[in-house]
Amino acid sequence: MRIRLVAAVVASAVVLGAAPAWTDSETKGEPWVPPGLAREEQAEWKDGRPPGWSRGAKRGWRGRDCPPGLAKQGRCGEARVAATPQAKTLEDAVREGLARLRKWVRETLGLPPRTLEALLVGFEGAVRNGVPPAVAERVVMATAERGVSAYGIEAISRALAYGVRRGVPIGELEAFAAQGLGRDVAAEAIALGLYRLGAEARR
Questions:
Q1: Start-to-end Cα distance in the chain
Q2: Of residues 159, 151, 156, 148, the one with CA closest to residue 196
Q3: Contact of 181 with 142, CB cutoff 8 Å
Q4: pLDDT in tens, 82-116
Q5: Global pTM?
């Protein structure tokens, strides 16, 4: 019985006293590399970090530049919160687009107030209903350049949004509107054509 107890104590001391392989290598100033790798695979490890370490979203890192496991062990130093570019919101896109349109009208066309209002309302309504801001901006600008009435601008922008909601490719809708405007087709007819494209999209 005493022999078993002594053996258990010795085994515990060996286990508790043995440091993991990465600790030995790190205390010697050498970056840790998993054992059993070929030379080519070892070469892919940089400063103790595996291949691909710098790539990927690292969603589980909670916005920091160090994984949680290493952070708990105190091996990250002063881990910084990773800077993530902020996506432009819909409100930003609408606000910036309206500002550009106002400036464009002021510097080039000098539209009547009612037409300017229709231009801005048409743009904002289209964007809020799924039309990409750049497309909505191009279309309403084209309508203004062609002298389309306030009613016509609103009709075309509404029809454009309807087509997007119905799943018509935006390129097809924009091309249809641009072709009609280029041929001086009446705004109501262009809007009707856009509505027809939308109505036929899910048949």
A1: 86
A2: 159
A3: yes
A4: 444 555 788 999 999 999 999 999 898 888 999 99
A5: 0.57
